[in-house]
Amino acid sequence: MWFLIDTGDIFMYFLALFLMTVGLGLSYGPQAALYAEMFPADVRYSGVSIGYAIGAIFGGAFAPMIADLVFKSTGQSWTIGLYILGVTIISLVAVSLVKDPKGVALNTRSNEVIAQ
Q1: What is the dihedral of CA 46, 49, 53, 55, to 10 degrees?
Q2: What is the pLDDT of residues 34-67, one digit of tens each?
Q3: Of residues 71, 66, 35, 70, the one with CA closest to residue 53
Q4: pTM of the model
Q5: How many angstroms separate the CA atoms of 94 and 88, rounded?
Q6: Where are the domains of the chain?
Q7: Distance CA 39, CA 112 (A)
Q8: How far from 114 is each of 39, 41, 108, CA to CA, in Å?
């Protein structure tokens, strides 16, 4: 993606953005289900929102500063891609270690009563 952006051609830039959105769609699609299954129903909204907010703080605050530091120290924009690749590998390992919540009720007790 960075090599396409560095060409300076507006069409290559839009192609790079399109390719990026394909990857984003593949990663954001299953997030809701993953987050929902990580917490029992009675604390799901709080657990997901706190976890997402803390992740947004660390990812949203520090990632641009690190990317700027990488770019300033190397002078090459593609090295930001290497930084993103490293963070992606860490994220992939972390998500792979999430265990399936066996025995955790995925619905609330009031929903169970209504369903019966």
Answers
A1: 100
A2: 888 887 777 888 888 888 889 888 878 899 999 9
A3: 35
A4: 0.70
A5: 10
A6: 2-115
A7: 17
A8: 21, 15, 10
Q: How far apart are CA 47 and CA 25, in angstroms?
A: 23
What is the amino acid identity at position 42? D
Distance CA 13, CA 6 (A): 8
> 44-74 vs 31-38: helix axis angle to the nearest 10?
130
For 29-81, give the DSSP string: TTHHHHHHHHS-GGGHHHHHHHHHHHHHHHHHHHHHHHHHHHHHHH--THHHH
CB–CB of 74/81 below 8 Å? Answer: no
The residues, ordered by sequence, that sit 6+ positions from 4 with a Cβ below 8 Å of its Cβ are 12, 13, 15, 16, 19
Structure tokens at 26: 């593949």
Q: 3-class DSSP state for residue 2?
A: helix
